[in-house]
Amino acid sequence: MQEPEEIFAAVMAAAQPKVLAGRRFLLTAGPTFEAIDPVRGITNSSSGKMGFALAQAAAEAGAVVTLVSGPTSLATPPGVQRIDVTSAAQMAKAVDGSVRGVDAFVAVAAVADYTPTAPASKKMKKSDAPLTITLKPTTDILGNVAARADAPYCVGFAAETDDVDRNADEKRRRKKLPLIIANRAQDAFGHDDNEVTLFDDAGAHRLPRMDKLALARRLVNEIAKRLPARS
């Protein structure tokens, strides 16, 4: 017999309004890992929890969901197709191969902004000399999707450490996004709850702190209200 918590979770999932019935969603989640050598790399402390919660909530709401995930130990939500990647380049390729025909692209992943230009083929040995690693910018996955002629409804996430509102809305305008969801990185990474502000052309819309699955369900409803009618 299933545990009471599992039964309750299944009942709650089944009870969610099917506001995305027939819609196709593509999401990214988790960190990326940019190799320096075969055993070392550049990454960040994103747990992937928010992206996985959003994938679960979208599936509960009736969407056909594809989740492109960086390295994480999280279990795949029920009903979600998952594509595992490691680097920003791999994530960009997976998104590019999956985005055609989707209704919405939700970029939750904390993608590395830079990657080593020439990763070493063997483990680098420690020495007393300073080490310089040359980095190059990674592909702007969200910006590229938003710039497509057949772009889906694009939702960005902005994890900022300071000037959250200003930095998030500037990112939304620069990438020409209809919606961006902002939070303080230090309050979100690795935590089971989150507090966010939504920015769109109408301004800022603050949501209270709540656990990430409850927040994901709220965000799915916010996105559903903003999705263009199907042609």
Describe this protein with a few key phrases.
single chain, 231 residues, two-stranded antiparallel sheet, 7 helices, globular
**pLDDT < 50 stretches:** none
Strand content: 15-25%
Q: Helical region count?
A: 7
User: What is the C-level CATH assignment?
Assistant: Alpha Beta
Give me the CATH architecture, please: 3-Layer(aba) Sandwich
What does the main sheet amount to?
8 strands, mixed
As for the CATH topology, it is Rossmann fold
N-C termini distance = 45 Å
As for the number of domains, it is 1
> How confident is the prediction overall: mean pLDDT?
92
C-alpha geometry: globular
Reading the helices and strands in chain order gives HEEEHEEHEEEHEHEHEEEEH
The neighbouring-strand order within the major sheet is 5-4-1-6-9-10-12-13
Structural class, from secondary structure content?
A: alpha/beta
Query: In CATH, what is the homologous superfamily?
Result: CoaB-like
Give the helix proportion (percent range): 25-40%
